[in-house]
Design a protein that fits this description.
two-stranded antiparallel ribbon; 2 strands; mainly alpha; nucleic acid binding
Length: 326
């Protein structure tokens, strides 16, 4: 406890009262760093236990990494003592190298100023494995890129070919029907009789029809046979199509298909036609070319001009191909 000094000119009682009112009581100072015997004993036991405990692999790896990072972050060029203790730097100093200068001849601007950085290898792969893996991944990526581009181009080419094939097939069917109609018209003009061109069932056997348009006739007759078979199933006919009733009139026979034409149709469709199969195996462009040539030579008709010329010269026609008419 501290007391203020007496003030001059004041009585002793007044000074005592003021001293009593102004005195301060200091808080007791506790030494926090002072340990008791028990605390010190426990601390020493903990320290001894920590010193006696072997460090784990993770702790040793962390300490090793820290020491290595600290060593790699320290430049030997900035340490003058290193020129004597480090053999490599001492050898370079004897050869004329001075710390801070670049390697190479004097005046070269592309000389190296800093040592090569050390890349610590943490995996178990051998030397060159990482570069080989990178090369393999790069090659695989390039292969995938080329394959994607190839597949894209192949897809576009395939779609283009499919569209072109469908377009040519449609033109082949149209050219077949034109040839069939023109041939029927010429036969009618020559014989004066009506032919069965364009009808569902042809009265002429299939093999006697020109192979150029025999396919469209066969397709039409197959559809007619299917239609009649469905009709027979719906009507639940109890008799065969070849059965002939002598009391049945001709119109009824024509309506029911029992006049013999249907029987000939079934026989024609069941027979194999190698000539037609060979023609159908041709490309659509080749079949169309044969049909166009037949129309030009036999009927003086240009499929591309859509015009029938008066003579075989086809005067005014630019050519026999589609490209000639573009």
């Amino acid at each position: 406890m501290t007391l203020p000094k007496p003030t001059a000119g004041l009585s002793t009682e007044t000074v005592d009262e003021e001293d009593y009112m102004n005195m301060t009581i200091a808080e007791p100072v506790i030494d926090l760093h002072r340990e008791t015997y028990t605390q010190r004993r426990h601390r020493k036991e903990r320290e001894a236990a920590l010193r006696g405990r072997p460090k784990s692999k993770q702790e040793l790896a962390v300490e090793e990494r820290r020491a290595r990072d600290a060593a790699l972050a320290t430049s030997l060029l900035e340490n003058p003592v290193a020129t004597k203790t480090n053999k490599g730097l001492a050898m370079m100093t004897k050869m004329g190298f001075t710390p801070g200068a670049s390697l190479g001849r004097a005046g070269q601007s592309d000389g190296r100023l800093e040592p090569l950085n050390i890349c610590v290898k943490e995996g178990r792969g051998g030397i060159g494995l990482d570069s080989e893996r990178k090369r393999y991944l790069r090659e695989e990526f390039e292969k995938d890129s080329k394959r994607a581009k190839t597949e894209e181009s192949d897809y576009r080419e395939r779609v283009r070919k499919e569209k072109e094939w469908s377009r040519l097939e449609a033109m082949v069917g149209k050219a077949m029907r034109i040839c069939e109609r023109m041939d029927a018209e010429r036969s009618e003009n020559e014989t004066g009789t009506t032919t069965s061109a364009g009808k569902n069932i042809s009265t002429k056997p299939l093999k006697q029809i020109n192979v150029l348009w025999r396919g469209v006739v066969r397709e039409r007759e197959e559809k007619e046979r299917e239609r009649r078979m469905r009709y027979d199933l719906q009507q639940s006919l109890s008799r065969l199509p070849t059965y002939e009733d002598p009391d049945e009139e001709a119109d009824d026979k024509q309506a029911l298909g029992t006049n013999g034409v249907y029987h000939n149709l079934v026989e024609d469709l069941e027979e194999e036609d190698d000539e037609l199969d060979d023609f159908n195996r041709l490309e659509p462009g080749e079949r169309l070319e044969k049909l166009v040539g037949h129309m030009r030579t036999e009927h003086n008709y240009c499929y591309w001009c859509k015009y029938k010329y008066p003579d075989q010269n086809l005067e005014g026609c630019p050519g026999s191909t589609e490209e000639d008419h573009d």
